Structure formats: C-alpha cells, structure tokens
C-alpha cells in the first residue's frame, strides 16, 4: 500500500470536481435521499479514469456525482476532522485498508456492507480475491470494496542469470541465497540482491519473507509473535541476504525509490518488491536494464511461497451518510466488472479474479509478471503489516530487527526485544 503513495498524481491542493448532466438535479428521490452523491477520492490514476467514465454512470442513474479530489496527506486530514465529527457530507470515501482501515472500522466510520455486497449477483462479490476481501473486512463483515491491489514478486536480471549459468530464476529462498551470492562473487560492482532497508519502509516487503518462513506479526489470539522461531529465521535471512549479497556499504534507510534505482541502474541481480512498480524497471526511459528484466513468483520458504496480496485502496460508505443507498450505487458501478476491466487495461491492478483471467485484462502486462501475480493471488496473505490502529508506530517496532540484522547484529536478540515492545504496544492499544 505505501508504494502506491508515490504513484499518486496531481497536485497537493484540493480539487473539487462537480460533474453531472445539467438535467440531474440535487433534490431528493422517493427514498428521501439526495440525488447528489458526494465522493472523496485520492489523487491517483484510478481516480482520473473513473472521472472520465462518470457521465455514463450519471446518465444511467439520473444521479449527480460531486467529487472532492485530494492529495494523500490532505485526504487523511479531512477524514480525521470530518469523520471524527460525525459529518454526513461525505457519502463515498476512498481509503487505505491496511493503513487506516482498522481505525475507521473500529470508530464506526465505515458502514457495514454485508447486505449490499449480496444484493446483485451480476456484480458478483465472490469474484474478488480472498486476500483483499479479508483486508477490507472488520470482524468478519465487509466494510469496503477493494479497488487497487498489489503483490510482492521477484524482479531479476535475465542476462546476469545466464552469465552465471542459471537457466531459471530461483524458486525457493534457499536457491535465491545461493544465486545471489554466486552472481555477486562473479560480477564485481554488482549486488546479488537488493531490497528496502529502512526500518518502516522495509516492513511491508519483509512480510512476505516472514509468512514464507511460517510466521506472522501476531498469532490467532492477537499476541505478538515477532520473536517466534519462524520470525527469527525470517529476520536473520532478510538481513543476512542484504548484508552478504547486497550493495557495498548498503545504507539502512532505503525505501523503494532507492532500492529500485540500484536495480534499474544495473547494480543488482535480484530485487523483491511490489508488482505495482514494474514499469519503473521495464521502461527504457527509467531503466538501463529494461530489456533484461524478468519477473517470477515470490520464492518459497519453509512454509511455501506466501507473498502478500493486498488492496492498497478501497471504497467505503461513510456510516454517517444520509445517502447510503445512492452511495452504494456509485460503488457498485465503479467496482463492477466493466469498470474494473477498463481500469486493469490502463495499468491499475484489480482485485477481481475475472479480469486477470481475461486475456484483454492482461494484454498490457509482461507475460511472466502475469504468471507471478497469478501465483501470488492464489496463496497470498491479505496484509503486509500489523493490523493495528496505530500502524506507523507498529512498523517502527517490528522493523527494528530488520535494520539490526542488516547491520550484522544478533537478529534473534533483536526480535526478542521487538516482541516485548510490540506486545506492550498491543496491550496499550487494547485498553
């Protein structure tokens, strides 16, 4: 989800766009609800696409859609003020399920959509992938509809693998470790592996390693488990791979732009990252190695290949809205199969299984990336960070052992320290 932040387009100023047919008034309908649906969206390519299609929806329904479009920080600020005050002047809201979803649901900002998602068989809620649905549910009930997804995959250099005598990308984490070390030793100035190293930014990408070793941030009862045997192995593996096969003098504050730059400048053989960033690696204008980039499913660990499969953005209905019925009509249209396919074709990865199965929906993606995504969505985990209210604080805690491991410190001891701090955090949050 945080990688989407950097794909946001537009200015940081609020842009209010009122679009509608002049024949559509703002008066009520037979249900007493307003015929103007007020929708708050983030600056994103998904938003630009939906704005272009709006006249079709307004013509079909006789409703008028009023869009407030904001930069991500401003969006959060507005939600903090308006939702906390119980304001009814937002009907539909675009939000980040893994960053603020639990907070919004816990505070009853998001309406329960259980009845709505079952109301139209043609819309087909069962078409949405399990991981994103899990992330947009609260206490087993859907409170949002995922609109944009991402998964973690393995980026690799085809030419470097060929020079090293490797006929295929690694299928397991053990194979990745061996291949990365071999390429680094054989290719001076080139790292075998690169990934995020910053304490907070690395958490989301480390999560797939954690799951593939058989761990998670918490157990089924909600207790901290970042010092389980599986977690300790994952921390040691991730940090050790970067320390031993990563770039020389690697920093411990890299997020995706810095790690991606190392890969696209031809300075690394392997890179694990969100699929949503693939064009940075395959666009010749951005990448020196565009012609030699390949994609593969996330390598399997002791527990198999368990990458995250998450929704970075979703649509929900403000529970204080007086216009819930028409708000749902907008969401139903915007997340329907037709609009979802159009978004997918424009490069916005969807949570619907049908568009990935449709050749038209994958025609613009590299074939091996489509195969990697298919594998990720099949066994993917629906979160890439702790599912808590204060996400930023939690990431700082569980990310510390990553930094310590990269620096050559005792990963197991760091995990024990982090687990104690994380459990206290969870206990405090539960009060």
From TrEMBL:
InterPro entries: Bact_solute-bd_prot1, SBP. It comes from the Bacteria. PROSITE patterns: PROKAR_LIPOPROTEIN. CDD domains: PBP2_TMBP_like. PANTHER family: ARABINOSE-BINDING PROTEIN-RELATED, DIACETYLCHITOBIOSE BINDING PROTEIN DASA. This is Carbohydrate ABC transporter substrate-binding protein, CUT1 family. It comes from Micromonospora inositola. The lineage of its organism: Bacteria, Bacillati, Actinomycetota, Actinomycetes, Micromonosporales.
């Amino acid at each position: 989800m945080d990688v989407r932040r950097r794909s946001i387009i537009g200015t940081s100023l609020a842009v209010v766009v009122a679009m509608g047919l002049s024949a559509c008034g703002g008066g009520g309908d037979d249900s007493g609800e307003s015929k103007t649906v007020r929708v708050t969206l983030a600056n994103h390519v998904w938003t630009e696409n939906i704005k272009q299609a709006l006249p079709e929806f307004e013509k079909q329904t006789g409703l008028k859609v009023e869009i407030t479009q904001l930069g991500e920080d401003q969006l959060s600020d507005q939600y903090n003020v308006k939702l906390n005050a119980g304001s009814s002047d937002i009907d539909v809201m675009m939000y980040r399920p893994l960053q603020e979803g639990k907070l919004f649901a816990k505070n009853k900002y998001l309406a329960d959509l259980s009845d709505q998602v079952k109301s139209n068989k043609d819309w087909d809620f069962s078409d949405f992938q399990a991981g994103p649905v899990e992330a947009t549910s609260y206490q087993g009930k859907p409170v949002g509809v995922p609109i944009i997804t991402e998964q973690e995959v393995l980026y690799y250099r085809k030419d470097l693998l060929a020079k090293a005598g490797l006929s295929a990308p690694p299928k397991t984490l053990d194979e990745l470790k061996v291949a990365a070390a071999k390429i680094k030793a054989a290719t001076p100035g080139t790292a075998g592996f690169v990934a995020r190293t910053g304490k907070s930014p690395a958490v989301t990408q480390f999560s797939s390693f954690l799951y593939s070793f058989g761990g998670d941030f918490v157990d089924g009862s909600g207790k901290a488990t970042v010092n389980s045997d599986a977690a300790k192995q994952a921390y040691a593996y991730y940090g050790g791979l970067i320390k031993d096969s990563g770039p020389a003098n690697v920093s411990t504050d890299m997020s995706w732009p810095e790690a991606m730059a190392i890969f696209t400048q031809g300075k690394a053989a392997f890179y694990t990252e969100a699929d949503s960033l693939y064009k940075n690696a395959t666009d010749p204008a951005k990448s020196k190695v565009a012609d030699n980039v390949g994609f593969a499913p996330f390598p399997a660990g002791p527990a198999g290949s368990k990458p995250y499969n998450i929704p970075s953005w979703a649509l929900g209905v403000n529970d204080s809205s007086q216009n819930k019925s028409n708000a749902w009509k907008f969401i139903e249209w915007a997340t329907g199969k037709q609009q979802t396919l159009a978004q997918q074709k424009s490069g916005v990865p969807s949570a619907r299984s049908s568009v990935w199965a449709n050749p038209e929906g994958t025609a613009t993606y590299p074939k091996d990336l489509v195969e990697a995504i298919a594998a990720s969505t099949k066994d993917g985990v629906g979160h890439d960070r702790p599912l808590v209210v204060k996400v930023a604080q939690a990431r700082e805690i569980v990310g510390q052992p990553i930094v310590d491991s990269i620096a050559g410190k005792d990963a197991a001891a760091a995990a024990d320290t982090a687990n104690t701090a994380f459990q206290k955090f969870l206990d405090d949050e539960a009060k």
